[in-house]
Design brief:
It contains 10 helices and 11 strands. The chain has 286 residues and is an alpha/beta fold. The chain has a single domain, classed as Rossmann fold (3-Layer(aba) Sandwich). Strand 3 and strand 4 form a beta hairpin. The protein is globular and about 60 Å long. GO terms for molecular function: 4 iron, 4 sulfur cluster binding; ATP binding; ATP-dependent FeS chaperone activity; metal ion binding.
Length: 286
Amino acid sequence: AGCRDVSAAEAAELRARLRAVRHTVLVLSGKGGVGKSTFSALLAHGLAADETKQVALLDIDICGPSIPKMMGLEGEQVHQSGSGWSPVYVEENLGVMSVGFLLSSPDDAVIWRGPKKNGLIKQFLRDVDWGEVDYLIVDTPPGTSDEHLSIMQYLSATHIDGAVIITTPQEVSLQDVRKEINFCRKVKLPIIGVVENMSSFVCPKCKNESQIFPPTTGGAEKMCQNLNVSLLGKVPLDPQIGKSCDRGQSFLAEAPESPATLSYRNIIQRIQEYCEQHHLQEEKIM
């Protein structure tokens, strides 16, 4: 895909490290600011609500790592052990790794060229001791950049279940999501489906529904029909989502009755079902 091939030795190292990862899901978006990291964080929380499942959240948004803040882990450091870097744990069954843990301050700017970013992504996959993991969620930067090609290339040594693509309803956002869908098809990355964030807003006082981002071209629903991809669901705007993220708390736990929480739970269930189905198909092939 236009980038250096992984050597056989590197592929073997990556395979050895990631052998115990059952499912890998990439979270993508065409644009910044559409709620991709929020979705990654809540997907991890939602999956980890089942205590029998081990969940890992890897943040490869190197220039804008917001996962430490959203997971309540700001200021945490990465520790090294004999078996590699240890993830930072939110719960016993939810581990997180981010470039944010390697910066001396959350305000530090990361000014790196491609090769250094690629090197760090490889290190995260090869040197982090994830242990036995049911779900590895990868939060990526917006767009289709170096980081996406690198993660695809390094994970091709193992397997990826697919990508979840996040958008908002307006055409300006959908335009970039179409590029993202084409990128996935070019690099043969399965698309689990699309999530439309900020789809509408219900006023808590008068209960009137408003379209904050009007879907002038039919929103994600029309785009998914046209491009033959699944629409996993629409998440309404809830101001509590931003508040919970800023406090490093799980919105799903803080607002269990919110329509947005119900929507998230349905979407997470659909992703789980897709992954289980994908796993069964792979076992049949093998």
